[in-house]
Design a protein that fits this description.
The chain is an alpha+beta fold and 124 residues long. It has a domain of 57 residues. The protein has four helices and two strands, in the order ααββαα. Strand 1 and strand 2 form a beta hairpin.
Length: 124
């Protein structure tokens, strides 16, 4: 009556039938597949009160290797100064926002030129 469950199941040792080595190999295989292919987890949380939307949170999670992410065109960590030493920190001479501030300033200058050209044409 004192026979262990492992003895009744046909295994004489107290080791799991799957074993430690097999489960870690399976976990490694799963992790390798996920990083190689990538996985997306998406979900939305919405809080309503009397049919009035108070809060919506959209959650998007992508798990992939760096190579797979770059293949998909995702490389934001390379341009973030807090994550990459190669990223150019925002400086005060470009408005503090980096390349987007420079592009914005160029677009504003072009728009001002176009407006001036239209006004000049209208004066004729």
């Amino acid at each position: 009556m004192s026979e262990s469950l492992a003895g009744r199941m046909g295994t004489s040792s107290g080791v799991s039938p799957y074993g430690q080595q097999g489960s870690s190999a399976n976990l490694a295989d799963i992790l390798e597949r996920v990083l190689d292919k990538g996985i997306v987890i998406a979900g939305d949380i919405q809080i309503n009160l009397l049919d009035i939307e108070l809060l919506t949170i959209k959650l998007r999670l992508l798990v992939a290797s760096v190579d797979k992410a770059k293949e998909m065109g995702i490389d934001w960590w390379e341009h973030d100064p807090s994550l990459s030493s190669r990223a150019r920190p925002a400086s005060s001479d470009d408005g503090g926002a980096g390349p987007l501030a420079l592009e914005n300033a160029q677009l504003r200058a072009e728009l001002a030129e176009l407006r001036a050209a239209v006004e000049h044409k209208g004066e004729r």
